[in-house]
Amino acid sequence: MKIDNYKIGNVYPVFIIAELSANHNGSIETAIETIRAAKRAGADCIKLQTYTADTITIDSDKDDFLIKGTIWEGQNLYKLYQEAYTPWEWHEELFRVAKEEGLISFSSPFDKTAVDFLENLNVPAYKIASLEITDIPLIEYVASKGKPVIISTGIAEEEDIELAIDACKRMGNNDIVLLKCTTSYPAPIEEANMCMVKDLAERYNVISGLSDHTMGATVPIVATVFGAKVIEKHFILDRSIGGPDASFSMNEEEFTAMVKAVREAESAIGIVDYKLTEKQAQGKDFSRSLYVVQDIKAGDIITEENVRSVRPGFGLHPKYFNDILGEKVNADLEKGDALKWDCIVKK
Questions:
Q1: What is the pLDDT of residues 317-335, one digit of tens each?
Q2: Domain range enclosing 223
């Protein structure tokens, strides 16, 4: 699978997305500087969210529209999204800046008008947010555009995931990425459940990854070990500027450290290979082998007292120890001599 010029899959580096979300705090200048900071921090991509308060909810003061049980406790949905949305007239400029910085950029649409708008901007992929995984008509419309679809599974049960995948495939789109996500802000690390990253890939035969709301780099590192090929984190210039998503977003220093840790984890995973590298082979010099530990005269018999398995590794392999016990040596040998086959009387 490719998103723009970036190849995504088992043999390719993890695709790291910096999520801008509401972290522009109503300022396009802040949004632009955040994109540049994301590049400095090592992100491969900057992602926006494309909605207005009217395309994502309705203006109502009924109790159903008051947020409960989250960091936005008591806020009205419509008013929250009025504060958090990224003005559509900014998108073209933000995508231009991202391209200038060498970052891939795309967005999460929340209705068909957002998809149409983003199509006009020629985005290379789409992201379906966790809470939209049940919006099958939206997923079908996104998938119909023939571009990779990245889907967060934060609120999804098995049926929800299956319905979303089926929606993509009905539209002839098999370029699907499923992201394990814990829809909690910030998310408790003990609820990360990173073994799901591997299971999502195997169970649904897709590329899998992580959309992370935990604090720190631990969960992205573990996700990488479990095979995540896409990692998304909310990114902010400085949490002190505030905003709806500030409390669970990484700043530049933290994001940089996370990227470094993920890249190191990728290097550490390696491949299944029992052959030793040149450095590892050198280490065998310090392994065990058979050495003379008491002076021996020519004709003497090898015993457990005069020959032992010790470090380093320049003598006979220890596997021959029982074979050479009771054999005679053909020359005078000193303590510290490596025992070799040519020291032993041939039968």
A1: 999 999 999 999 999 999 9
A2: 10-269
163 and 114 both lie in a single domain: yes
Q: What is the pTM of this model?
A: 0.87
Q: What DSSP letter does each residue of 50-103 carry, written as one string?
A: E--HHHHS----SGGGB--SSTTTT-BHHHHHHHHPPPGGGHHHHHHHHHHHT-
**What is the crossing angle of helices 158-170 and 195-204, to 10°?**
40
CATH number at residue 56: 3.20.20.70
pLDDT at position 14, please? Answer: 98
pLDDT value, residue 346:
84
Give φ, ψ of 29 to 5 degrees. -65, -40
- Of the candidates 43, 48, 126, 127, which has an alpha carbon nearest to the alpha carbon of residue 88? 48
Residue 149 near residue 179, CB atoms below 8 Å: no
Give the CATH number for residue 323.
Answer: 3.90.1210.10
Pair of tokens at residue 89:
């007239």
Q: Which residues contact 241 (CB under 8 A, 6 or more apart)?
A: 23, 25, 30
The number of folded domains in the chain is: 2
Based on the fold, state whether residues 130 and 243 are members of the same structural domain: yes
